[in-house]
Design a protein that fits this description.
With about 260 residues, this protein is an alpha/beta fold. It has one domain: Survival protein SurE-like phosphatase/nucleotidase (Stationary-phase Survival Protein Sure Homolog, Chain: A, 3-Layer(aba) Sandwich), CATH 3.40.1210. It contains seven helices and eleven strands. The strands form two sheets. It has a nine-stranded mixed sheet, with helices on both faces. Strands 9-10 form a two-stranded antiparallel ribbon. Strand 1, helix 1 and strand 2 form a beta-alpha-beta unit. Helix 1 packs across helix 6 and helix 2 runs parallel beside helix 4. The longest helix is centred in the middle third of the chain and has 23 residues. It starts with a strand and ends in a 6-residue tail after the last strand.
């Protein structure tokens, strides 16, 4: 397939790099347009109040690659309108792999990864968002190492990326044009070659108090937390599937909002 790939963790994130390598190894034709800097928790925001720049770069992907000084939604919008030739219009938009989960209502609407995929859906294309759940310890190790994964994490990431490359054409084939749908896929930690996919719904998670009390300078600082899961016992949620060691696949059909 011809795919447009983006993310919210930025062009230099190894999670994006492993996804790109897996997609190319699976035979897909890619264009990569990713944020210049990390854009986590930005949702589907667009840079309305400032100019946005784009530039072609070489990150060793073996495919056309650009950075955009903006959000994931900016990346996809600018790519489809200005960077990619009409003759090579992508057949789907793939966003990820995100550093950490994007599971539950409390996280999905805030996710820049899902926001980038949603921009593809707004353009009428099949869209997929991939995220890798991590333990708190593994996440902290990754951040302290400047984004360089441990051998254990890299092995898990490569496995998840291969799953993603396998799932992309399957999910795209089930998505009609103009369906305003995002396939939200979360990989458990660890993820193995034999790990099974389960259909899920977003967990109902309340996420209050994401900011610290005011500091001496009057500023509030972001403080991550997973929130309180108030989901009913059934159907299977994305959070419950990850806890049980499954790959979670939620179909986010935005046409159902209001029904």
């Amino acid at each position: 397939m011809r795919l447009l790939v983006t993310n919210d963790d930025g062009i230099d994130c190894v999670f994006l790099h492993e996804l790109v390598h897996a997609l190319r190894s699976a035979g897909h034709t890619l264009a990569v347009v990713a944020p210049k800097q990390e854009q986590s928790w930005i949702g589907a925001a667009k840079s309305r109040h400032r100019p946005v720049t784009s530039a072609a770069v070489d990150r060793g992907f073996g495919c056309p690659t650009w950075i955009v000084d903006g959000t994931p939604s900016d990346c996809v919008n600018i790519a489809l309108a200005h960077l990619l030739p009409v003759a090579t219009k992508p057949e789907a938009v793939v966003s990820g792999i995100n550093v950490g989960l994007n599971a539950s209502l409390g996280f999905i609407l805030a996710s820049g990864t899902i926001g980038g995929a949603w921009e593809g859906a707004v353009h009428g294309l099949p869209a997929m968002a991939f995220s890798q759940d991590l333990s708190f310890e593994t996440y902290d190790q990754l951040k302290y190492a400047g984004g360089v994964p441990t051998p254990e994490l890299l092995a898990v990431l490569k496995t998840s990326a291969r799953h993603a490359a396998r799932l992309v054409p399957q999910l795209a084939a089930t998505t009609a044009p103009l369906s305003f749908t995002v396939h939200n896929v979360n990989f458990p930690f660890p993820c193995r070659a034999e790990t099974e996919v389960r259909r899920t719904v977003p967990a109902q998670v309340i996420v209050p108090g994401l900011f610290s009390p005011a500091q001496d300078d009057g500023t509030h600082r972001f403080v991550f937390q997973l929130g309180e899961d108030v989901s009913p016992p059934a159907p299977l949620t994305d959070r419950a599937a990850l806890t049980a060691g499954y790959i979670s696949h939620s179909i986010l059909d935005y046409r159902r909002i209001g029904h």
